[in-house]
Write a structure and sequence with these properties.
six-stranded mixed sheet, binds beta-D-glucopyranose, about 20% strand, alpha/beta, about 30% helix, 19 helices
Length: about 750
């Protein structure tokens, strides 16, 4: 195992051994499992505190009671609501990721946390996965380059990042038990690279094992994933934390590289790594050595975080809800918005010419911070688009809001705590307390819950249809009588959520019908969305302007208004393919998604743009797409062989329009005559350049040997074959502006 020499000197390792030598078995065991829902056990006698964790990727979650799934009822746990990982990645700006990491880390410390359960870096395999909004992209390179600076920013605050969920956490259906069959090459080329970068480059102090199984074994008990890949190949010496309830078997979990068992159950002493492990050790079935290895990793992280040791007094105190933090969330939100379509310069709107603005659609006024599952937070505030527009216009313009469509109130059906509900059947537990059940009982309850949810959705459809009649009529009338009309629809966390997947890729609540009807009366309708995953847009050819925003944090509304009125020139780009219809996706074709029991990722590397490319299916909006209010040209591509097998590229990007703007220039590699089957092209680098009107910039990108490589299963290694590779430089994966050929010797 590799030891990080900078933070983790030999001296620390000696101190760890010394502490370990003083500990009883009971004390060691107390450290390796939860003693509260979000805290591990402490060893007070030796001054070792428990490790305090919290979700999550969009900000620090509210405080819970230690053994009941109820809010602690505190009034000081409102925090900055940060852009979701999908919004952050849409900036294609690693610097923004670093800035966001610093805010998340400072807020976590400010709230007294040691580990923040973020970021979510799983690859988006199907647009229907319920947790896609928490993840970054369908592409491993993009995910890695956003995750690494984010982690660094977090950890500068003496808080550990906990990248999750390792590995291939691609669906929510049957999430605790589903077994995913994945071939090695696909794991190494698609599902592993961002995790590898997170631990090797980001130096993430911790990582969370996923709920699902990979090739027959639960991820938290998976020797291939945790021992061979994570520890041996990548040299990870940090802490592996289980997802909450992700451990099922004592011996398996004890004997692999999992360090800390966390769960949703209140009987902490019955956790697998508590009394059951103690019994097994006493009987001689499991060696105490395995406990020592876990404690070492936990203590090492504690030293790194200055929780113990000589540097304790120098630990950063953190801070939350500062104006500076809000400024960062605003800047990321501004950069994350994606202009999908803009004909006739429909956008930006000229505020001085609008006396009456009509805003239609529930996402104009909806609060999203309080939903989604474990990513939910108690936001200090959240500016919705309607509020943002009103603040921007400042009262001199009449702004009329109509709902447009009906959204059923979910609080009626989800009246328990979300986390408890999603994992067990509350009927056999004390209020808010969960008693452990065997896997099959738990799974049956999970399945019953899912069936009920689907039946409810069916029932709701009629209710929606009935209520929409009057709402549609009102919206259409309002649209006729306005200088400009903005539709703000999309999804919400009743749909984009942990715990279940989407049933289709359509806009809910009959929004398509409403948009069609509105486009009949307003050709200049500005169609905008907030959502966490792609939707079908059957009317897209008729609409002139389409703007997409992921859940972009507390300043969403202000950023939205600035983009609509042109104070901000949009520069976000899609980090995932937006298909025309779900049927075009590989998971629709092979049916290996959203089913119970097991799935086979038989498409291998071919998901997202890799699949659309190979099948020559035109998506609605491709990976990497995003427009600007200005135009950029690309010119002068030159390639040069560098030392070793590196290739240096230079090209020039110029802003030809009249506004300041930023462009994400993307570099793809397309092997010519590859020896093995390879995707038509793959993203290998990108760079975001901000340019004043008329200005240009020479961009330099160095491609490394590893950028040309694929994973050879027989050699169990990456190799870059000699030969020719086409280098494609584009404004998106389809809008290729420059081409060259690199020859690898
Ligand atoms: C989620 C994790 C989360 C954990 C703790 C689990 O249900 O999958 O992402 O960090 O709960 O809340």
């Amino acid at each position: 195992m590799k030891v990080d020499t900078k933070n983790n000197t030999k001296k620390t390792e000696k101190e760890i051994e010394k502490l370990l030598g003083k500990m009883t078995l009971d004390e060691k065991l107390s450290m390796i499992h939860g003693a509260a829902f979000f805290k591990s056990g402490s060893v007070e006698r030796l001054g070792i505190p428990g490790i305090v964790t919290s979700d999550g990727p969009m900000g620090v979650r509210e405080e819970f009671m230690s053994d009941r799934w109820f809010s602690a009822g505190n009034n000081d746990d409102n925090v900055s609501y940060l852009p979701s990982n999908s919004a952050l990645a849409s900036t294609w700006n690693p610097y923004m990721a670093y800035e966001m990491g610093k805010v998340l880390g400072a807020e976590a410390r400010g709230r007294g946390k040691d580990v923040i359960l973020a970021p979510g870096i799983n690859i988006k395999r199907s647009p229907l996965c319920g947790r896609n909004f928490e993840y970054m992209s369908e592409d491993p390179k993009l995910t890695a380059t956003i995750a690494v600076p984010l982690i660094k920013g977090v950890q500068e605050n003496d808080v550990a990042a906990c990248v999750k969920h390792f590995a291939a956490n691609v669906q929510e259906t049957d999430r605790l038990m589903v077994d995913e069959e994945i071939d090695e090459r696909t794991l190494y080329e698609l599902y592993f690279p961002a995790f590898k970068a997170a631990v090797q480059e980001g130096k993430s102090y911790s990582i969370m094992g996923a709920y699902n199984k990979v090739n027959g074994y639960h991820c938290c008990e998976n020797k291939m994933l945790l021992d061979r890949v994570l520890r041996d190949e990548w040299g990870f010496d940090g802490v592996v934390i289980s997802d909450w309830g992700g451990v099922h078997k004592t011996k398996e979990a004890a004997e692999c590289s999992l360090d800390l068992e966390m769960s949703v159950f209140s009987d902490f002493e019955n956790y697998n790594l508590a009394n059951p492990l103690k019994e097994a050790i006493k009987k001689g079935e499991i060696s105490e050595e395995v406990v020592d290895a876990k404690v070492r990793n936990l203590l090492r992280m504690m030293y790194r975080l200055k929780m113990i040791g000589k540097e304790k007094s120098a630990r950063k105190p953190g801070t939350y809800n500062t104006p500076a933090h809000r400024e960062v969330t605003l800047r990321i939100a501004e950069e994350s918005m994606i202009l999908l379509k803009n004909e006739n310069q429909c956008l930006p709107l000229n505020a001085s010419k609008i006396k009456k603005l009509v805003v239609i659609g529930q996402n104009a006024a909806k609060i999203h911070s309080n939903g989604g599952g474990s990513g939910e937070i108690k936001a200090l505030y959240e500016i919705c688009p309607l509020m943002g527009l009103k603040c921007y216009l400042g009262g001199n313009t009449q702004v009329r809001y109509v709902k447009g469509y009906y959204v059923p109130d979910k609080l009626k059906t989800f009246d328990h705590n979300w986390q408890a509900d999603s994992l067990d059947d509350l009927s056999n537990s004390d209020v808010g307390m969960l008693t452990r059940e065997d896997d099959s009982t738990q799974n049956a309850a999970h399945r019953r819950g899912e069936e009920e949810r689907l039946a409810n959705l069916e029932k709701e459809k009629e209710e929606i249809h009935e209520k929409n009649k009057a709402l549609f009529a009102e919206a259409i009338e309002a649209a006729k009588d306005a200088d400009a009309v903005i539709f703000v629809g999309g999804l919400n966390h009743d749909i984009d959520s942990e715990g279940f997947d989407r049933t289709d890729m359509k806009l809910p609540y009959e929004q398509d019908m409403l948009i069609e009807a509105l486009l009949e009366v307003r050709k200049d309708l500005i169609v905008t969305f907030i959502g966490g995953s792609p939707v079908e847009m059957p009317w897209k050819d008729k609409a002139q302007a389409i703007l997409w925003s992921y859940y972009a944090g507390m300043e969403t509304g202000n950023a939205f208004a600035k983009v609509i009125f042109g104070d901000i020139n949009p520069s976000g780009k899609l980090t995932e393919t937006f298909p025309n219809q779900y049927e075009d996706c590989v998971t629709a074709k092979n049916g290996q998604f959203g089913v119970w029991g097991s799935i086979k990722l038989e498409e291998g590397l071919y998901c997202g743009y890799r699949y659309f490319d190979r099948q020559r299916i035109a998506p609605a909006f491709c990976f990497g797409h995003g427009l600007s209010y200005t135009q950029f040209t690309y010119s002068g591509l030159a390639l040069k062989a560098e030392k070793g097998r590196d290739v240096k590229l230079t090209f020039t990007v110029k802003n030809m329009g009249k506004r300041m703007g930023a462009e994400v220039a993307q570099v793809y590699i397309a092997p010519i005559m590859p020896k093995v089957d390879r995707p038509n092209k793959e993203l290998k680098a990108y760079t975001k350049v901000e340019l004043a009107p008329g200005r240009s910039k020479k961009v330099t990108v160095t491609l490394k040997e590893e950028d040309f490589a694929y994973f050879d299963e027989s050699l169990h290694n990456f190799i870059a074959d000699a030969g020719d590779y086409e280098i494609l430089i584009g404004a998106s994966s389809e809008d290729i502006r420059l081409k060259g050929i690199a020859t690898l010797s």
